[in-house]
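2024-03-11 09:14:02 INFO receiving multi-entity request
2024-03-11 09:14:02 INFO entity count = two
2024-03-11 09:14:03 INFO echoing inputs for audit
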Amino acid sequence: MSITFEKRLLTRNREHKLLEKLWRVPWVFVLLLIAVAGVGYVALYSAGSGNPDLYATKHALRFAFCLVMALCIGLIDIKVIYRLSWPLYGISLALLVLVAVRGQVGKGAQRWVDLGPIQLQPSEMMKIALVALLAAWFARATWKKIGNVFFLVPAMLLVFVPAGLIFRQPNLGTSLITVAVGGVMFWVAGVRWWKFGLAIGAAASAVPIVYANLRDYQRARISTFFDPENDPLGAGYNIIQSKIALGSGGIWGKGFLGGTQGHLNFLPEKQTDFIFTMIAEEFGFVGAMATLGLLMLVVLFCIYAGFMCKNHFGRLLCFGIGANYFFYIFVNIAMVTGSIPVGGVPLPLISHGGSAMLTVMLGFGLVMSAYVHRHADLGPARE
Amino acid sequence: MRLNPFSRKQKDRAVPGSMRGVKRDEEIRRTVFTRRAIMYGAVQLGLFGFLASRLYQLQVVEGNRFATLAEENRVSARLIGAPRGRITDRTGALVAGNRLNWRALLVAEQTADVHATLETFSRIIPLTDNERARVDRELRRRRRFVPTIVREFLSWEEMAHIEVNAPDLPGILIDVGTTRQYPEGENLAHMVGYVAPPSDRDLGSDPILQLPGARVGRAGVERFHENILRGRAGSVQLEVNATGRIIRELDRREGVPGQDIEISIDAELQRSVRGKIEDGTSVVIMNARNGELLAMASNPSFDPNIFNSGVSAAQWRQWTAGRSTPLINKATNGLYAPGSTFKMVVGLAGLEARVVGPGDRISCPGHLDFGDSRFHCWNRSGHGALDMRAAIKNSCDVYFYEVARRVGINRIAAMARRFGLGVDLEIDLPGVRRGLAPTREWREAQGKAWNIGDTIVHGIGQGFYLFTPLAICTMTARLATGRAVQPHLTRSIGGRPVRGGRPEDWPSLGIPDRDLRLQREAMWAAVNEAGGTASLAKLPGNLGMMSGKTGTTQVRRVTREQRERGFNVQNLPREWRPHALFVGYAPHDNPLYAVAVVVEHGTAGGAAAAPLARDVMVETFNRFRVIS
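2024-03-11 09:21:47 INFO inference complete, emitting structure
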């Protein structure tokens, strides 16, 4: 009975189809995203010292635009996205090359490409494109094919070529996240344990080479991470100030707009990379855990959406997008708590800044599409 | 586990092509995916758990520690000033000290509105526009927790007004600091110097200068020994709660006071010397044996206390306009031709080069003709045949024209440099001028040729020579002792004597004693023998005998027409009259003190400078008999 109902729906006119799709949009997920962005609005309102015009209003407008964009993407048929995965990857790679050739230089790194009204960070875009492409790559491969080295090596190149370009920018943090996201895709696609062991072994042996190619400031980050007190006014300043601000929040925090460290400007880049510290200082352990819980729900929904998908492309896509956002969260919060070296990774949807939000919401749009079209069939696996 | 995707058997069972195979394959993929996804999800949850544990560690377990750190952060360290070192003269009399100074400070971070506070303040104690501008400027360049001085030198009445209105004056606090005080005023200003507020460039160099009321030495000993006098700032770490109340002191590091400095000047002697001289005259008295300066007077002078509270534009104009230049120490920065006081140096150069013997006589007909030029002796009728002793005693010009002609300018310059003329003296004062002892090469570097006629003129200390009275006095001390003494002011730092106090600290000039003795004999004769040019410098009574030499240096060249018309310097306007110089030391047989006197436009060394030098020397003897 239900099957006939579904078939009847598919034959309905376009308008009804759209309504039906809207009905299937994961509104819980949308509410979650709005909640996260709301936390960002509150934090940015405080970072602007009570002046919404500084960061908060822009954040809200930007999020509204991105949410509409994500919903639109969510209504695009998953098959279309499946077919678009190669062009998307190609465009992203071209942008990466473009930025490497002539990009805007900011903070000692070539990361931005200026597209008139918006400045795009192709490395962010690349991660989404990479997820989509790897999902497509593995989606219709048979189990046997996944075990084939000649099938895996090109896929690895798809990961390492952009990762290398991002590393050269130089942007160590994003480059590592790109590799990690790629790794998660390989992992959930079912690549064998020992192959991962081999890759990790190879990566470990490459560490000295990578270290030799690091920029001075990147090495400084690593060395000050291991001994931040060594240089309390230099490169270690950010880590120490962030820990002090975060720790001094205590259990209940200093209250909204009451964070002394942030407002007296001891805390660096409080509206971007260190926004979580701002939240933790003003709302304490309780507020920080609540924010962390909210972020975890977003990631968990991506996993849930993946499980709900009938087609393999959708599953892998949801996992990859979720992993991308997860790595943002993990690296950023580990960074501000002094657990890993500072890497200039923002906390998208909460941090001020458009490029990361745009690409993250683009990804969530893909998740929505996968969820809306979770029953779609992309055909059988091919040899 | 019925369906094991990792076993080879099952993989083989997935036969491609057939519908059954595809289904099977899909099943395997899905099962593997589920298994891997759950593992991946578990890892993610574990990492979330790790982040949560980090937050717990930082915010709950170490929360109090970080809260304290945050508070410390907020207060930062407060600096404790260190008193500036004092300066005393050789008798221990204070010449630069510190005086209590009650002042009103403003701490920007303790008031919501800096301008409202200042507005209220100026209704209680009116502030001038200049003061307002200064406060605004300092507030802008200092950090918000560093206090800025609003008003210094408060009276008791003003302080009472501020205290009564304290609730309306958030951010204002009354504090006692110190200010520099110079009890001797203008008496020692040229040597001691003065202090002034630090410049923007100074501010970054030392945290102590951030403190309100900080002063930096700008001239004299205050500047030369700035680092010794300044001391180091201490710091105190205060635990302060959000309302600014001090709860306890966490850490305290006391500052290191600046070290006291004793200078070799005798303030009393300086005062009496300054009382004897007119504006434009400078006198230097030096311990001939070790180079200690005992008095160095240059009139007019200025009051260094004025710099402390800021110099008004009118005051500055008064100091800098006109010809009197009170801010300039003519003893170290005035440049004069040495005139006849230089003749001993020329004589020594001649003796060393063996172009003239001690007993060789040179005939003086009143002039020396060389080429087309005629060089006159001051004595138009001539001195007849003279040896070196008589030539110095009578200050014969022709004798030294001839010696200079024989020696050549470069050997004279080399001898001058050995006597501290035309070289940088190692004196502990900033900005002392070097002067000029020209050489042939120096002139040629200017693109001009050096003529023998130039050398002849330089034989009597005229021409390009430019020396400070300090350098001329140094020359005299070296003549008297044969040692390369350097003039200096510092006797001890922080109670420890500095090197240079003993005669043995100074190396010998390496000039044969016989040659030096001849100069000293001649100088003795100039003062003490009948007919000597410096007879007015003869010391009275039993003080011992002074040896010396006069000098008169033309400010303008005397033209032939003037000479023929019966030239008389007394008819010249004052600023065209020659400078009068005298150098000497006493006692002749055991030199203790060297003196140099330069009377600007004094007309004649023998008449104007020599008696002054005598009086100064008498005063010095009297004074040191009292001290020791």
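2024-03-11 09:21:48 INFO post-check: Strands of chain A lie at 104-106, 109-115, 118-120.
2024-03-11 09:21:48 INFO post-check: The longest helix of chain A spans residues 275-308.
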